Amino acid sequence: MNSPAPTGWDATEPIELDVPQQAPPQAEPIPGEPLQGKHNPRISTPKFLRLGTVYDELTRQRAAQLIAKYPQSRSALLPLLHLVQSVDGCVSADGIEFCAEQLGLTAAEVEAVATFYTMYKRTPCGEHLVSVCTNTLCAALGGDAIYTSLRAKLGVADQETAGTPGEPGSVTIESAECLAACDHAPVVTVNYEFYDRQTVESAAELVDELQAGRRPAPTRGAALSSFKQTELELAGIFTGEQLSAEVAVPTASEQTLRGNTYAGEHAQVAPAMPDSYQMPDKPEPKS
Amino acid sequence: MSTPAGQAGASGEDRAAQQPRPPSTGDQPAVLSPVLTRRWSAPRSWDIDTYRRLDGYTALPKALAVDPAQITELVKASGLRGRGGAGFPTGMKWSFLPPPDGKPRYLVVNADEGEPGTCKDIPFMMADPHLLIEGCLITCYAIGSSFCAIYVRGEAVQAIRRLTNAVEQARAAGLIGKNIQGSGFDCDIVVHAGAGAYICGEETALLDSLEGLRGQPRLKPPFPAVAGLYARPTVVNNVETIASVPDIVSGGSDWFRSMGTEKSPGPKIYSLSGHVERPGQYEAPMGTTLRQLLAAAGGMKDGIPLKFFTPGGSSTPIFTPEHLDVPLDFDNVAAAGSMLGTTALMIFNETVSVPWAVWKWLEFYKHESCGKCTPCREGTGWLTQILRRVVSGAGVPADLDVLADAAENIQGRSFCALGDAAATPILSSFKYFRSEFEDLISGRAAPVIDARELVGAH
C-alpha cells in the first residue's frame, strides 16, 4: 500500500508504479447499505499513467523560468504540475518525475501534492474540460439537471472523456464545486472559461459545438482555447501578444455591474474624499 | 486636490450633501456607495491608462512619502476589518509583525475565492486589477516586505490573466521592481495559480500550498505574523481588504469611517445570488440590510417569498425572513447568531428544501475536507451518509440526534474552521427547519431525491 521510497532512493531513476489496478468506479453507496466486500474508494494507491513523454527543451526552459519567480524553488511545484499537464493533458508518471527532477524532490513528495488538488487530472483530459457547478445554489437553479443531462448525452461518468482524449472534439465532464460566479448561476465552465446562466438546452448546444470542433465564445473571458493551453497559462507562461488579446475581451457582465448601474441610475455616489487630512504620527517605540 | 470616490470633480457642496453616509434606513432601497467598484463600468477598466485616468496610483506616492509605521497607524485608525470572512482588524494584524531583523517578510494576498456563494473577488480582479496591485505595494511598504504573492484559485483563469497583465504593466511603468519611484523601496509581485482546493482559502493551508505542499492547515500558534511563508513574518489578507488600502491612504480614516458603522466602517461588496430578480454585486456601506439590498435588486424572483439565506456563504449559519432587517455588519450579524463571512448572500425561496440544501453543502465539505484531522475527515463522511439517507426517504428518527451530536462534536474540535463550517448548516437548519427533516423521516414529506440517482461525484 505504501509507496516504495527507501533511504537513498534516486528520484531520477525510473520508479516502479506498477501498483495494483484500481477497481473500477462503482455507483455511489446506497444509503444504509454497508460497504462490506466492496471497493472503498477512500483507500487506494494513486496511479499515474506512464506515457513515455520526453519533455523538450522549451518545457525545461519554462520550468526554469517558473522556478526563478519564487524565493524558494519548491513554491514552483504547483505551477510545474500545471506545466506538465499542459504537455500531457494530465499529470503522468513522467510528469511527476520531471517535477521531482526540476525541484530536487522525490517522486513520492510530488505525488503527494499532485493527488491533493482537484485540478490535477490522472487520466488524459479531452480537448475541452466541461465543469458543471453542482453546489447548492447552482443546483437549485438547474445545475444538477444540466450535469445529469450532459452526462447522459456524452454517455460517460464523471471525469471521463467522450472521444479520444486530446483529439479535437473530445470532451471531459466533471461536476464542480462552487466556481465563484454565483450571481451568474447556473454556471458551466469550459477549460475554466465562464459560460454563465446555462440551461439544459444551452449546455447541450455548447457541448454539441465543442464536439463538432467549434469553440463558442465564453460569456466572460478570452476566446476559448484548449485544456492544455489553459493549463500552460495557469502554470504562469504567457506570451505578450496572446495575453494582450486575451485581456482585452470584455468581462464586465450585467450582473457584475448591477450595483454600479443602480447607483448611476439613482445618482448615488460614495462620500467625496477631503482635500487633505492629517496622517497619524509614527507610534512611540515600545520600551 | 480633491479626489472624490465615485465621480471625478464633485464640488464641495456635493460633498456636504453626501456626508455622512450611514447605512440606509428602514425598508428603503439600499443607498449604494461605489468605492472599490467605482471603476468597473469604465471601458478597459483593467488597463493601467484607465486606472491612472481615474485617480489610480495616486495613493502610492503619498504612502511612500511617509514612514511605513504611519500607514499601519492610518489603517488601524480607519477601523478596516478583514473582508475574507473573519473580520479581524487589518491594522492590528499588520502590527503583530515582529520588528524588522533585516531578513525577508512577506505579503500574501488570499484570492482563493471558493466559499459557496462568494463571487466578489474574481469579478474584482477582472475589473480593476491595478487597485489590488496598488494596495499590495502600499501594504508591502507598510510592513517592510519586498515580495508579495497573490494566490488566486486556479479556476479563475481570466482573473489570473488580468492580474498578470496588470503586474507587467506596473513593472513597465516602474511601479514594481527596484527603487520604486526613487523611494528606495523594492517590491516584486507574483501571481500564483492554485489547483482546486477550497481548504487553501484557510490562511495557513494557503501558505503550505504556496510552499509547494499539500494545502493543509498549520497548527496556530505560531501565527503567520510570526512564522508564515518560509517560516518568516507574513501578512495574509483578502483581496477586498488589500484593495481598500489605497483609498484609505487617499481619503484618510475619517473619510473611510463616514461609511458603515462604528465597529464595521467602510463600504462592502454585497454579492446577491439565487432567487432574486437582479443578482449581482452591490457595494453599499457596512450595515446595510438584506431588505434594503433586495429592494435595490428588484426583490425576490417572480415574487416567490424568501425562505432562507446565508449572510456570508455556506459556512455562516442560515438566516430566515425574520432576519431581513439585521444590519449586515460584523457585530450585528454575530449578535443575531450568524457571521458576516464574505457577505455572500445566497437567497433561497420557498421552493427549496432545506434538508436538500444542507445535504448538498455537506457533500461539498466532505469533498473539500483536507483529511488532516479526524473530526472533520471522518465526521463529514458520516454526516453526508446520514443526510443522504434522510433526503432519500430512508432516514430513521435517531438520525437527527446522531446528526446533531456529530455536528456538535466536529464543531470546535477540528483543526481549522472547515470542520466548524461543515457542522454549521446542520446546526443552524435544525434551529429553524427541524420539522422539515422530521417530515422526511416520518414520510409526511416525499423524498427529495431518489437514492439511486444521486447527482455528482462527490
Automatic annotation (TrEMBL), chain A:
Its EC number is 1.6.5.11. One of its GO terms (molecular function) is NADH dehydrogenase activity. The keyword Oxidoreductase applies. It holds the Pfam family 2Fe-2S_thioredx. Its cofactor is [2Fe-2S] cluster. Residues 22-32 have a biased composition (Pro residues). Keywords: 2Fe-2S, Iron, Iron-sulfur, Metal-binding, Oxidoreductase. It comes from the Bacteria. InterPro entries: NuoE_dom (IPR042128), NuoE_N (IPR041921), Thioredoxin-like_sf (IPR036249). The keyword Oxidoreductase applies. Residues 1-42, 265-287 are annotated as: Disordered. Belongs to the complex I 24 kDa subunit family. PANTHER family: NADH DEHYDROGENASE [UBIQUINONE] FLAVOPROTEIN 2, MITOCHONDRIAL (PTHR10371:SF3), NADH DEHYDROGENASE UBIQUINONE FLAVOPROTEIN 2, MITOCHONDRIAL (PTHR10371). NCBIfam families: PRK07539.1-1. This is NADH-quinone oxidoreductase subunit NuoE. It comes from Nakamurella aerolata. The gene is nuoE.
UniProtKB/TrEMBL annotation, chain B:
Residues 355-400 form the NADH-ubiquinone oxidoreductase 51kDa subunit iron-sulphur binding domain. It catalyses: a quinone + NADH + 5 H(+)(in) = a quinol + NAD(+) + 4 H(+)(out). Gene3D superfamilies: 3.10.20.600, 6.10.250.1450, NADH-ubiquinone oxidoreductase 51kDa subunit, NADH-ubiquinone oxidoreductase 51kDa subunit, iron-sulphur binding domain. InterPro entries: NADH-UbQ_OxRdtase_51kDa_CS, NADH-UbQ_OxRdtase_suF, Nuo51_FMN-bd, Nuo51_FMN-bd_sf, Nuop51_4Fe4S-bd, Nuop51_4Fe4S-bd_sf, Soluble_ligand-bd. Its cofactor is FMN; [4Fe-4S] cluster. It comes from the Bacteria. Keywords: 4Fe-4S, Flavoprotein, FMN, Iron, Iron-sulfur, Metal-binding, NAD, Oxidoreductase, Quinone, Translocase. PROSITE patterns: COMPLEX1_51K_1 (PS00644), COMPLEX1_51K_2 (PS00645). Its EC number is 7.1.1.-. NDH-1 shuttles electrons from NADH, via FMN and iron-sulfur (Fe-S) centers, to quinones in the respiratory chain. NCBIfam families: nuoF_fam, PRK13596.1. Belongs to the complex I 51 kDa subunit family. This is NADH-quinone oxidoreductase subunit F.
